[in-house]
Amino acid sequence: MSFGAASFRGAANQRGAVVDHRFARRALINEFRRGRLRRDQVCDAHPELIRAATNFGQPTSVRCPICEEQEVVLVTYVFGPRLPAFGRVVSKASDMATLDRRSDDLAAYVVEACTGCRWHHLLKVLPVGGRRPRSAASASQ
Ligand SMILES: [Zn+2]
After folding, report:
1. How far is the CA of 36 from the centre of ligand 1 (A)?
2. Cα 68 to chain center, whole Å?
């Protein structure tokens, strides 16, 4: 199984806007808690995602909604032209700032993952780079 943006649960082809996937995440967790989904149906993160979560995951105080044994971590992948098909894991703000200065339209996928039970879910997709209107914070650059 190849690894890419489609490997993230909740991923869809949505570009150019900030997309929030927390509603879908909550609905899925509710389905699991009602017994309509088995654990192996929601805890199937790609090994590549678990490796990135282990090495580059940003800690959170959010307990895993499935195993409830440890906190989930956040992994940010950036996809787009002149980046690997399997994306680039970005763990530093300075690296993200560098990508954001590119003229290519890129997309950052913020994924929540549990290295214990392999639960994962896409939280949001953010546009990065590109010739879009700059926010006030970066207008002075
Ligand atoms: Zn877990």
Report:
1. 18
2. 20
pLDDT, one tens digit per residue, over 51-97 is: 999 999 999 999 999 999 999 999 999 999 999 999 999 999 999 99
H or E element: which one contains 27? helix 22-33
User: Could you tell me the distance, in angstroms and rounded to a whole number, from the CA of residue 98 to the centre of ligand 1?
Assistant: 32
The whole-angstrom separation of Cα 51 and Cα 21 is 23
Please give the distance, rounded to the nearest whole angstrom, from the Cα atom of residue 113 to the centre of ligand 1.
Answer: 8
Distance (angstroms) between ligand 1 centre and the Cα of 63 equals 8
Tens of pLDDT along 7-51? 888 775 455 566 778 888 999 999 999 999 999 999 999 999 999
Q: How far is the CA of 66 from the centre of ligand 1 (A)?
A: 5
